């Protein structure tokens, strides 16, 4: 796909939070009664979670609203058992689906099989493997390949687990442990990275009748029933990051649909861009971003790793030397997001040096066109498109542009509405 833009201006509606949507769908599917989950974008990852919960016995119907083409899910929770002896869960490319549902399925069944894309199979599940070995659960898998065959069942107790690989593993236990017969504890044995995502999980669980006590390293979870609830999914701050960099690099964009008091950790993008001298401001409930003369900053992304591609892109055009650090987990995403981001930006004329846990970025005045690949990574594809206004008179030729369907299927429609051009 060829991408170009001279400026970005206009109104944009941020897509619903994928993080909230995954969690609300799972909680509603485990609940007694019927829930309405509103403001859903049927991205590939969300479709994977819907399919998985249907496999486990939830009844999920999809309705549509005229407002921004969003969907409404009507979910009637599973009645204790779907009737399957050995459920087969296809997670496609969704790491959230896989990591959230492994412990959930083990709390409900004695055997299960998980499968998905080859890229997903390469993402680390080591803390689960170690934990479940202690729990006498058989984990059968060829290294970094699907299928994963599980045999055994979770019982209440203490669950020591590393928090360094992904907070999704702690969230998965939080979904599962209320389903057990007695009180359980989660003991995070080291640093908990992306803590805000765990807080987000606790927020959703509370809406569906589950109360988790504790914080940081220790959580106590009593057996409780999930209760149905109606849930409105708020806008996604990690996707808003790309709209914000379009604004500060290429014009003036008004972003609608964000919660300015959100629990999403990626809300920090607002303060980071402000620190870079970005013209970011609110008018009532609308967030504006205007073209700015940006300056370099240093950012630790250990608590907001999904922002790294957007930040790297905007830092490439900021005056001075910027650094991204704390990004070790970026190497375990849809692509190795350190190597792939560095390579893509340098192809466009940026000056970026790879480090073990991040990158060093020396800002340049402009970028140039090139033939690049998203590495089938949705955030790299959106980053490349968002930079196109900084490429004067040239185009980006982006391979694997369709990767955006993983999280934001309508991204290119929004891109064009704001002034971008894209040709297949």
UniProtKB/TrEMBL annotation:
Q: Which reaction does it catalyse?
A: 3-phosphoshikimate + phosphoenolpyruvate = 5-O-(1-carboxyvinyl)-3-phosphoshikimate + phosphate
Q: What does this protein do, in the record's words?
A: Catalyzes the transfer of the enolpyruvyl moiety of phosphoenolpyruvate (PEP) to the 5-hydroxyl of shikimate-3-phosphate (S3P) to produce enolpyruvyl shikimate-3-phosphate and inorganic phosphate.
What gene makes this protein? Answer: aroA
Official protein name in the record = 3-phosphoshikimate 1-carboxyvinyltransferase
Active site per the UniProt annotation: 306
Q: Which family does it belong to?
A: Belongs to the EPSP synthase family.
Q: Which keywords has UniProt assigned to this entry?
A: Amino-acid biosynthesis, Aromatic amino acid biosynthesis, Cytoplasm, Transferase
Domain (Enolpyruvate transferase) ranges: 8-414
């Amino acid at each position: 796909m060829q991408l170009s833009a001279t400026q970005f201006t206009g109104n944009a509606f941020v897509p619903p939070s994928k993080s909230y949507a995954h969690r609300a769908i799972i909680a509603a599917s485990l609940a007694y009664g019927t829930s309405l989950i509103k403001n859903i974008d049927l991205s590939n990852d969300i479709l994977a979670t819907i399919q998985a919960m249907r496999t486990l016995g939830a009844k999920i119907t999809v309705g549509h609203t005229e407002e921004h083409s969003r969907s409404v899910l009507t979910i009637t929770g599973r009645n204790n058992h779907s009737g399957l002896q050995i459920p087969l869960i296809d997670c496609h490319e969704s790491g959230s689906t896989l990591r959230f549902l492994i412990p959930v399925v083990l709390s409900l069944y004695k055997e299960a099989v998980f499968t998905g894309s080859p890229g997903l199979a390469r993402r680390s599940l080591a803390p689960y493997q170690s934990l479940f070995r202690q729990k006498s659960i058989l984990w059968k898998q060829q290294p970094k390949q699907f299928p994963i065959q599980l045999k055994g069942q979770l019982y209440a107790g203490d669950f020591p687990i590393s928090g360094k690989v992904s907070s999704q593993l702690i969230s998965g236990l939080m979904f599962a442990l209320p389903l057990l017969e007695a009180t359980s504890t989660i003991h995070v044995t080291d640093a908990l990275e992306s803590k805000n995502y765990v807080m987000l999980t606790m927020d959703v669980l509370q809406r569906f009748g589950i109360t988790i006590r504790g914080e940081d390293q220790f959580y106590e979870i009593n057996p409780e029933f999930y209760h149905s609830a109606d849930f409105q999914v708020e806008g996604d701050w990690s996707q808003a990051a790309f709209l914000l960099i379009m604004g500060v690099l290429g014009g003036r964009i008004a972003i609608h649909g964000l919660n300015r008091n959100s629990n999403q950790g990626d809300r920090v993008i607002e303060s980071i861009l402000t620190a870079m001298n970005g013209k970011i401001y609110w008018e009532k409930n609308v967030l504006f971003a205007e073209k700015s003369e940006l300056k370099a900053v240093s950012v630790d992304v250990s608590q907001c790793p999904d922002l790294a591609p957007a930040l790297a892109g905007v830092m490439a055009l900021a005056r001075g030397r910027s650094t991204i650090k704390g990004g070790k987990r970026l190497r375990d995403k849809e692509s190795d997001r350190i190597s792939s981001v560095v390579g893509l930006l340098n192809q466009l004329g940026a000056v970026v040096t790879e480090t073990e846990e991040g990158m060093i970025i020396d800002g340049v005045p402009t970028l140039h066109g090139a033939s690049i690949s998203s590495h089938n990574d949705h955030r790299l594809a959106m980053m490349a498109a968002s930079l196109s206004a900084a490429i004067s008179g040239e185009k980006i030729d982006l391979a694997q542009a369709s990767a955006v369907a993983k999280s934001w299927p309508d991204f290119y429609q929004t891109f064009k509405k704001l002034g971008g051009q894209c040709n297949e």
